[in-house]
Design a protein that fits this description.
53% helix; 5 strands
Length: 135
């Protein structure tokens, strides 16, 4: 008569224990493996989520830098008529104020167009791109 066999697999985070063999041995090894896995600390899923939220918070610096910088330009009268400004002029002015604008012209344009939508700036899009001003 063939001997009864058993198979089990335990997993806890990155640790995985698997055994296949005689039923009597499997029962003993299962208890040992379960005790071992319970004794090893592991990160809970909630802790991992908190880490991801902190990473996302790092990415939210962009509006905190560009929006106030452009608000300052509006208050200084940089966009006041008869001066209509394009993206390049705004980037140049922000660069003169020692802001890190290299490679960020797209973000500056997005921030400017949001200001237009909110009514803080006026703007039109022509064949050469956007033009911004205040009255």
């Amino acid at each position: 008569m063939p001997e009864e066999r058993a198979h089990f697999k335990l997993r806890n985070g990155e640790i995985e224990i698997e055994y296949e063999g005689p039923l009597k041995d499997a029962n003993e090894r299962y208890k040992e493996a379960l005790d071992l896995i319970k004794s090893i600390p592991h990160k809970k899923p909630e802790e991992k989520k908190e880490g991801k939220e902190e990473e996302k918070k790092k990415g939210k610096r962009v509006p905190e830098i560009w929006s106030p910088a452009i608000d300052t330009l509006i208050q200084e009268g940089f966009f006041k008529l008869p001066n209509k400004r394009n993206k390049q002029a705004v980037v140049k002015k922000l660069e003169d104020k020692a802001l890190p604008v290299k490679g960020k012209a797209g973000i500056v344009l997005i921030t400017l167009t949001r200001k237009v939508r909110r009514g803080e700036l006026k703007g039109t899009k022509g064949p050469e791109g956007w033009t911004f001003w205040t009255e």
